[in-house]
Amino acid sequence: MEYEATIGLEVHVQIKTKSKLFSQCPYRFGEPPNTLTDQVILGLPGTLPVINREAVLKTIKAGIIFGCDITEMAKWDRKNYFYPDCPKNYQISQNTDPICRNGYVEIELLGPSRNVMGEHKRIALDRIHLEEDVGKLTHFESDSGIDFNRAGVPLMEIVSKPDMHSAEEAFAYLNSLRMHMVYADISNCDMEKGEMRCDANVSVRPVGSETLGTKVEIKNLNSISGVKNGIEHEIKRQIQALRDGERVYQETRRWNADTNSTTVMRTKETAFDYRYFADPDLMPVRISQETKSTIMAEIPELPFAKQERFFTQYDLPYTITSVICTKKTLSDFFETAVAIHNNPRAIANIIANDLLRELSNVDQNSDKELDPRETDGYKISPQALAELVKLTDDGVISKQIAQAVFIEMFRTGKSANEIVREQGLKQNANYDELLTICQSAIEKNEKAAREFRGGKDSAINAIKGFVMKETRGQANPTMVDKTLRELLKP
Which 3-state string (H, E, C) describes the chain? Predict the structure, then answer.
């Protein structure tokens, strides 16, 4: 029997705000344990929560981006559970009236090759609601510690419908979700810092069946690749269990990346177990059309729409737009540089190849939203990049020299003109001197010269390479090609 998977994801995203959701207490990652708490966070008697307006507005922004229905009246509920990382023994969340319902996340699957855009699909959403985060447990050999710094941080829970059917779709969904959140400045979505966390609900059923299989939740998925690997494993585990005549139980399982397997944590709680009821200390939030219109006007051009525009406006290939358009910092950097010097293809190539290569050498964390203008000790501006491309277009330096100049610019922060002047890198356009070097190159590459005269056009490249080496890359490539072809005529 053939089986198919059904997957739904519950993604928690920490919202970028200066203070916590129901308290003026600040939050910063990496502070000493239990230094960012107050009476409200710890649930001390007599304290009352006050709603963080920015967190609500950014949740509405996410809902608009993903085409959700924004409620006119959102209310707060208490979700009761007794874990040590929940200081009040309940979490303020939204059960019956979340801020956002329905909507979708557009994803792009891998294409048949790197040069071809993959299929675009819409993954349906069930809801987006706002709640407070809990503390963090750290387990030691014989005891555990609780850090309440994270408790109370605004947390957006994005719940998809069971609308994915492969680990690849889940991988693309998370990448798209993170890309849009960072673009709109809602969250940094750094999974290493816990700013984006994901639980996956996976079930399998016989192909053609209309009844969903038993759902298993996977936790401890600490990276996007970890989500993909965990789902792939769980699909195989459930299919094998069914083929062996075993029963799949509804439970929560922990993913272990070291062993590439899942293990049982607990049976799944239900809404009844949480004993939800309306929070008596918080008034509902009314969301007006004026508020939604104001937020909508602040949303930037989103990545997939920007990619389509870059195709037509700048005539860029997919291999370039798929890199530049995924990060707002890079696309803004590109357009600022093009506005200064209008050579989109050359500027885009340097950003997608040279700039990203140097940035990755600085920070190996591929999940980080690197800003080429703010990387410590390696500052380069769009204006500086435009100047470098103009020097190449004007024939002042060759493309080969430009690559070396770029690396020096990135390392030192100096301008292209400054580096070219200091190192004497200006192209040599002296025809008499170039003619002498080309004649010598032909004499010292007799075999290549003979092959070229015999009809093998590519043989000239060996002679060109000799000339460029002799001139330290400072000869004008166009002049070299023209001079060699004149000298090599039969």
Answer: CCEEEEEEEEEEEECCCCECCCCCCECCCCCCCCCCCCHHHHCCCCCCCCCCHHHHHHHHHHHHHCCCEECCEECCEEEECCCCCCCCCEEEECCCCCCEECCEEEEECCCCCCCCCCCEEEEEEEEEEEEECCCEEEECCCCEEEECCCCCCEEEEEEECCCECCHHHHHHHHHHHHHHHHHCCCCCCCHHHCCEEEEEEEEEEECCCCCCCCCEEEEEECCHHHHHHHHHHHHHHHHHHHHCCCCCCCEEEEEECCCCEEEEEEECCCHHHHCCEECCCCCCEECCHHHHHHHHHHCCCCHHHHHHHHHHHHCCCHHHHHHHCCCHHHHHHHHHHHHHCCCHHHHHHHHHHHHHHHHHHHCCCCCCCCCCCCCCCCCCCHHHHHHHHHHHHCCCCCHHHHHHHHHHHHHHCCCHHHHHHHHCCCCECCHHHHHHHHHHHHHHCHHHHHHHHCCCHHHHHHHHHHHHHHCCCCECHHHHHHHHHHHCCC
